[in-house]
Amino acid sequence: MVTLEQLCQRAREIAALANWPEHTVEQRTLYLVAEVGELAEAILHLVRQRQTGQEHTAALEAVGMEMHDVLWNICELANALNIDLDEAVEKKREMILRKVTKEH
Amino acid sequence: MVTLEQLCQRAREIAALANWPEHTVEQRTLYLVAEVGELAEAILHLVRQRQTGQEHTAALEAVGMEMHDVLWNICELANALNIDLDEAVEKKREMILRKVTKEH
Amino acid sequence: MVTLEQLCQRAREIAALANWPEHTVEQRTLYLVAEVGELAEAILHLVRQRQTGQEHTAALEAVGMEMHDVLWNICELANALNIDLDEAVEKKREMILRKVTKEH
Amino acid sequence: MVTLEQLCQRAREIAALANWPEHTVEQRTLYLVAEVGELAEAILHLVRQRQTGQEHTAALEAVGMEMHDVLWNICELANALNIDLDEAVEKKREMILRKVTKEH
Fold first, then answer.
1. Is the CB of residue D34 less than 8 Å away from at least one CB of chain C?
2. Helix, strand, or coil here: B3?
3. I need a labelling partner for A24 at 20 to 30 A (CA). Which of B48, C64, C88, D51 fits?
4. What is the ipTM of this complex?
5. Cα gap D20→D76, rounded to integer Å
6. How far apart are the first and last CA of chain A?
7. Which of D74, D63, D72, D68 is nearest to D40 (CA)?
8. What's the Cα-to-Cα distance from A54 to each of A21, A48, A51, B81, rounded to whole Å?
9. CA–centroid distance for D45 within its chain
10. D73, HSE (Cβ side, Cα atoms, 13 Å)
């Protein structure tokens, strides 16, 4: 079971290992956008395979790989901004729970 | 420490509690895109606050909240497609590690 | 009939009139991303109105307004980079025409 | 000087010529998202070339090609929804002008 913190820690380790160049916060966000574009394309491919009744195991796996890349870029951005994703996720969850409970 | 699986499980529970309407895979991807747009806006606001030397605790927190929403939408999409995010993340991590180790 | 050049010229004029702060190329691209997110949301709203058989003139008009904002941000980015959109559009059109003609 | 209407008319002609499969409105929006991701990547490449003092004529041209693809997808989406882009652009322009004039 991967935790968000592990994912972000790994992003730090691999960035150090790979010796990637430094990026500004805006540049990191644009990398995220590029990955979201690739996820959109993988989704379109998967949907097409399904609609035409073709085997789509590989297309589904490709979607999972793109999802990783989006998560990874969120971690890289959180690392760069010193945002504790665990904390942020708990806080927003409570806000949503309050809202949903109030409405229902 | 939130695991990816917990995050996706919570998304399932809240969706059931909130009784949200069903969405196609394409529609779920568009919700993700809308959240990425909001994250981009929160990042622009944060950068502006920093550049003009203004207090930016609230702007930073807002970025964290938008990050949650992106993660959440990835979970919703993974749930809808029966993608095991943990598995996908491990698989892609190994691919990246092989690539990075080979290059360095 | 608005030409691309007029659209980009207007973007320049209004930017001067509004006295908006300067932005880097990355920041301008993030504004574009924010607008694409709003367009995605407007599309989701329109589709929902249509599916539930509700009147959707306002929802359709809102989509048009968001399309304007995307075009506008493309112009702002082209202006900042001194890209002649007319020229770019003609060039890419020829590439597509060659490709499509070859395939069919 | 290309007008928005010509751009959208050409999109219709090439779509007919290429005999592309039909797409839903959501799918067309996802194609737009994929192109915005490619534009983000082209921008990141251009910025990197500039920062490292490398020749960037090709990188700048690649950005123009991606801008075309975004415009094209906006046209395809407008065509599918019977949105008159010229009309939408004029309407939003007036709204912006009123707002900017009021503020200044």
1. no
2. strand
3. C88
4. 0.94
5. 12
6. 32
7. D63
8. 41, 8, 8, 16
9. 19
10. 27
How far B22 CA lies from chain C's nearest CA (Å)?
11
CB contact under 8 A, B30 and D27: no
| Token duo for residue C3 | 């030409």
Residue type, A87: E
Cβ–Cβ < 8 Å for D26, B34 = no
CA–CA dist A11, A75 (Å, integer) = 7
Name the closest residue on chain D to residue C20, using Cα atoms.
D100
Alpha helices in C19-84 (DSSP H): 25-51, 57-81
Cα(A45)–Cα(A52) distance, rounded to whole angstroms?
Answer: 11
Using CA coordinates, name the residue in chain C closest to A33: C33
Q: Per-residue pLDDT for chain B (104 aa), expressed as one digit of tens each? A: 789 999 999 999 988 888 888 899 999 999 999 999 999 999 999 999 999 999 999 999 999 999 999 999 999 999 999 999 999 999 999 999 898 888 76
Distance from CA of A26 to the nearest CA of D (A): 10
Long-range Cβ contact pairs of D8-12 (< 8 A, separation 24 or more): D8/D75, D8/D78, D8/D79, D8/D85, D10/C93, D10/D75, D11/D72, D11/D75, D11/D76, D11/D79, D12/D79
Interchain pair B27, D26: CB under 8 A: yes
Q: What is the DSSP letter of A3?
A: B
Please answer yes or no on whether A33 and D37 come within 8 Å at the CB atom. Answer: yes
For the question of whether the overall pTM of this predicted structure is more than 0.90, the answer is: yes
Determine contact, residues C74/C32, Cβ cutoff 8 Å. yes
Q: Could you tell me which of A32, A35, A17, A42 has the C-alpha nearest to residue A76?
A: A32
DSSP-derived letter for residue C56 is: -
Residues of chain C with pLDDT > 90: what percent?
78
